[in-house]
Amino acid sequence: xxxxxxxxxxxxxxxxxxxxxxxxxxxxxxxxxxxxxxxxxxxxxxxxxxxxxxxxxxxxxxxxxxxxxxxxxxxxxxxxxxxxxxxxxxxxxxxxxxxxxxxxxxxxxxxxxxxxxxxxxxxxxxxxxxxxxxxxxxxxxxxxxxxxxxxxxxxxxxxxxxxxxxxxxxxxxxxxxxxxxxxxxxxxxxxxxxxxxxxxxxxxxxxxxxxxxxxxxxxxxxxxxxxxxxxxxxxxxxxxxxxxxxxxxxxxxxxxxxxxxxxxxxxxxxxxxxxxxxxxxxxxxxxxxxxxxxxxxxxxxxxxxxxxxxxxxxxxxxxxxxxxxxxxxxxxxxxxxxxxxxxxxx
Length: 346
What we know:
By secondary structure, the protein is of the alpha+beta class. It has two domains: 22-247, no CATH class; 256-325 and 338-345, no CATH class. Helix content is 23%, strand content 27%. The strands form four sheets. The protein has an eight-stranded mixed β-barrel. The protein has a five-stranded antiparallel sheet with strand order 19-18-17-21-20, covered by helices on one side. A three-stranded antiparallel sheet has the order 9-8-15. Strand 1 and strand 2 (61-64) form a beta hairpin. It is elongated, with a radius of gyration of 24 Å.
């Protein structure tokens, strides 16, 4: 009886604690009104595009394959200035509105379907368990259309307290969420971002199950500690807006280059290396794209020169060779976790 009373007291205190820590509403004031407007727009668009094979109409969004453009109905969560923010966009039924800037009135899987409809394919998310230390995917530009105000890149909605500036306008990568077992029916596969929180459509940190995420290394803890709502861009709570998604690259461009770095011991007859630099220089290395070897000589310097040339010729937006090594300085003698793999976005 005593234990039960303690539990009841704790449970009764939880709502009060939640209110003290996060004075927010899980659902915006205008949610039901916005849902009705989006439902009306969906019905109208079904009629408007019924004979248009270049258009995909789903609840809350319209995709135009010819223009390679997606328009999604979103609403402001109403987070206040300088509030911590981990997600740029979440699904309507997410329980993480307290740390997201926008809520979409379209399902995460619908966004995934629309991206494939306009010719984009998902890449691969950040997943250290699979020795994948960065997200990989096609870069997309996201623009918010606001009523009676200029459009704005969504990176400007968030400020990084480390720099005092908004996020770099580098776009977001289409990594896609996973198909996973449904909790109550393990034999059934579901789209993780539809079924399980945080139901992220656009994540500001490297996530295994977001549809889109930032194109650089961004641990969740660092994002929570440093990414906040930009006080210079006000979005009234419940404001219904349109989020536009378009590819960053031209239609004819090759979107991702997969590079493989092969490392082998040097010639057996070579002198024994005396220093770490000698050991590196003694290795035989090849940088390959498919069956083509890109470096002229099997040396690290030649690999770096090949990457630099590739970067310049293709207008690369970013490149990653090695992740930050969390084991550095701890007596670790093996290669860095990311060694032997590289990829670039062009």
